[in-house]
Model the fold of this input.
Amino acid sequence: MLLNVESVSHIYNEGKPNRCVAVNNVSLQVGEKDFLCLTGKSGCGKSTLFHMICGLLPPTKGKILFQDNDIWRQDEAQLALMRNAQIGYIQQGSGLLANYTAFDNVRLPFFLHKREGDGAERAAMLLERVGLANKAENYPAELSGGEQKRVAIVRALMNDPVMLVADEPTADIDEESTHEVMRFFSELAQEGMAVLVATHDMDILSYANRVFKMKAGEIGEE
Amino acid sequence: MNHKKLTVFTLAFENIKRNRFRSVWLVILVAVFAFAIFCGTVLTGSLDNGIKTMAGRVGADLMVVAQGYEVDLEDTLLRSEPSTFYLDGEVLEGVRGIAGVEEASSQLFIASLDADCCTVPVQLIGYDPESDFTIKNWLVNVWDGALGQDDIVVGSLILAEPGDQLVFFNKVYNVVAKLDDTGMGFDSSIFMNRHAAQVMIADSGRLSADELKHRDDLTSAVMVKLSKDADAQEVAAAIQAEYPQTDAVVSSDFMRDIASRLTDISKLTIGITVLLWVVAVMVLFFVFSIVMDSRKKELGLLIALGATRKKLARIMLLESFVITLLGAICGIFAACLILFPFQTLIAGMLELPYLLPSAQVIFAYMMLSLGVTVAIGPISSLSFIRKLSKTDVYSLIKEND
Ligand SMILES: Nc1ncnc2c1ncn2[C@@H]1O[C@H](COP(=O)(O)OP(=O)(O)OP(=O)(O)O)[C@@H](O)[C@H]1O
Ligand SMILES: [Mg+2]
Done:
């Protein structure tokens, strides 16, 4: 199993009056080629779960095995390398670095660890694939919301990760682009990548081979 | 398309370039503080140095001047305010006869000669090389000849070098030596044979021939050295009893008076300078921390993309180092442009003994100011990154931009 989430919980503000159980005892297995959609009402804990899976937020309870490694028992360097090379994460909202062009934003993950080359060819190919070749030299402030999102999507693919985790990737793009992106994700899944998508958009659930629904921190497969 | 590799350097420079407004203001802020602490330290050091040097300068235990001229004497010693004051010539011999006096030598001060050599009015001091025991000490390091009637010794601010000739009232004088900086009035004084000085007074027409006839041994002050066991106050009283028209100034009192006044000023400036350093360090540290705090999301995004905190630290370190280095160099360079060319102007404005410390000391001040202002940005950035959670990246990237 590629990803094994074992009875994971996350509690915000433990011990304080505003204590919040965002994720409650969630278990989940994801294999290669899985295309998984996660839905649920706003505030049900989707983003929190994704952050724990991507090594950005430690769980309060339970463990997460990625390629049979407990990701939260790795040291900082291993964790950084996992974030960089193995998991592509697309965050909710805009996550581009304002100081670099679209092209450099896409290339950036390539340079955060030692690698040969300049990543230019792959970055150009990826931008081309989402129809943004002509915007490569634009800074994020010079891109529309949907264009920014597409740059963030291909940036997550820069280092050819084994798993792609996308938190509402189609929230601010039109219907046509939404389906393009989902088709793109399907292709990636067919090529062997595990794809996890959190979404409110019921229309796109059909692209997934598995659909999960979260409710007040708990998860169930549909 | 630009295929430059995204190294720590390119990332840091891109950050600086893309935030030009922030970068420029940070550079200016660092420059202002570097300027302030370097100037403050040099000024304080120069005052301290001037005061210390002055204390060792007056080689006489007592100074006898015409009654009421004590203030003029102070002006002559401390600043470049030339004065002329005369004493009856017979006083010298009389003083020599008084019990407790070991040596006495007269000096003649001539005020305010507007000479070609100098932008400031020059004070001429005539002394008697035979009996002199004060000026001799200052000459020890620079000259050991015998002062002829046409020879002069110049203070450090006089624009003449040994071997040059200067003309006063149509008479040519040979510059035989130049004194070191003292930070006192002597720096703009010219020393010559007392007899030659007297001739010059006659030539200048400052005193009428009639007056001069009765005063062929003009004296401004008699410098007195006491024998070992003599009491300065007693001897001063004895002199004043003998010559009621004089003031016998005990130079230790005189100097102590001036020195204590100056030491108070110097303490104050040291205090202000220390305060300046503390404020500079605190403000710069604070400002750099705020800048880092405002960049939390940017830092979080980099971590989420797989940057280690070490990598992050390298980028931020380079960024803040470039900014602080640029600022510190600009600030200290500007300070040098003011401190050194306008040295005499500053000394004149302060009206205090002001003497730049040695080049090594100034260099040390410079390195200290540079080092501290350059280091604060990187240190503050680094400590911010160290405080960032290793694991909870989520709270960083969730920050609203
Ligand atoms: N930093 C935090 N501190 C306290 N509570 C938090 C924090 N972040 C999220 N929560 C709470 O945790 C719960 C789950 O939040 P989460 O962001 O995971 O929801 P979500 O399912 O992604 O919602 P959405 O669809 O709106 O993005 C919410 O009730 C939220 O109020
Ligand atoms: Mg969410």
